[in-house]
Amino acid sequence: MKNINKKSLQKAICVWAGCTMVFMLVYLSIIAPQAKSKSQVEEKLNEMASAYESARNSAKEKIRNVMQEKIEELHSRLSRYTVDAEDSADLTFNISRIANEKKITSFSIKNNDILASKDNISESSIDLTFKASFDQFASLLNSLERHNPIVFVDRFKIVRSDVSSSDNRITVNLSVFVNKQQDG
Known about the structure:
The protein is an alpha+beta fold. It has three helices and five strands. Strands 1, 2, 3, 4 and 5 form a five-stranded mixed beta sheet that branches. Strand 4 and strand 5 form a beta hairpin. The longest helix is centred in the first third of the chain and has 80 residues, at 2-81. The protein is rod-shaped. The chain starts with a helix and ends in a 5-residue tail after the last strand.
């Protein structure tokens, strides 16, 4: 019996050694390269994630800068259409100066109450009354149209003059947008 156990044990050791060799060959030829490849892929993934995060942060900064530029452009465009509340007195002075340059007579200007109001902008009305020829009136309207901030002509009325005078009696109603005072 000793011989049978010895032979069986030898066979089992040979089978076990053979299987171990096969498993080692499979490990070295298939599994080990995959583990190495996996670590390389993980390294590349980490590099790509880092590059992605860097690009994303850079894009955020670029987008923030682009949006800031757009906001500044919109504020600039808005300033063409609005006057600040504290500068509205200067507007009536500028209109009077333009009328004076056009040699318009009997000129009077009157600020009216606010017509309409929204959150940040209100609409104000200005009434002009003067005597002028049609050419002077057209020249005044042309100057007002090119004024900054933009002045809107709501309505006007021309009353024909007497035969002895070439100046017509003119009434003009203007509207302007006024920026409300911002708190804080």
